[in-house]
Structure formats: C-alpha cells, structure tokens
Amino acid sequence: MSTLRNRVQLIGNVGNDPEVKTFEGGKKVANLTIATNESYRNDKGEKVEQTEWHRVVAWGKTAEIIEKYVMKGKEIAIDGKLTHRSYDDKNGEKRYISEVVINEITLLGNK
User: Fold this and answer.
1) How far is Cα 108 from Cα 76, in angstroms, rounded to an integer?
2) In sequence order, what are the residues at sequence separation of 6 or more whose Cβ sits closer than 8 angstroms to the Cβ of residue 3?
3) What CDD domains has UniProt attached to this entry (predicted)?
4) The pTM is what?
C-alpha cells in the first residue's frame, strides 16, 4: 500500500475550447473542462446516463500541445493528479477549486 499515490486517469470529451495563457518567460498554462459519461440501468430497467465535469489544467509543453490540437468536443485521455486550492474572489469570499493537473495527454478520435 505504500506505493499508492495521487493519480487520476480520465477519458472524455473537452467541454470548451481550452483557455491558454502565456506568462513572462514564455511558460504556458491551459485550462479546460472534460466531460465523462457513465450509463447504467435503474430499478425499472431504464437506461440512465450520467455526465461528470472535471476541471483540468496543464503546464509547459503539455499546454502547448493542447493549444495546437485540442478543441471543444475533442476526445482525450489524460493522466494526472488531483489537486485542491483556494482563492479570495472579488467580494473577498474564499473559493475552493478541485482540478486535475495533467502529466500526460493522449489525443483520441478524429475531431
């Protein structure tokens, strides 16, 4: 059990065109959302589909790949880690964000 670590793997569709920012020195960050879908049958035998949305962030070379090749609707697979952070909004209220920081991305599908 000591070899377990914080790891997330997702395959889904990009929900919006990635937002890419470039910092001084040229380092890039890409922010996007990924939708994953799951279906099951309820007690009545009816098919139920459930969509989960995931906030995703990528840095450096991975952000550059996303900027060039990823757009809304594209199917991607990611491997990363779950992180949590907080910030104060413009009203001074504390906000909390959970997101997946990408270590590796695989472009799937033809879109």
Assistant:
1) 5
2) none
3) SSB_OBF (cd04496)
4) 0.82
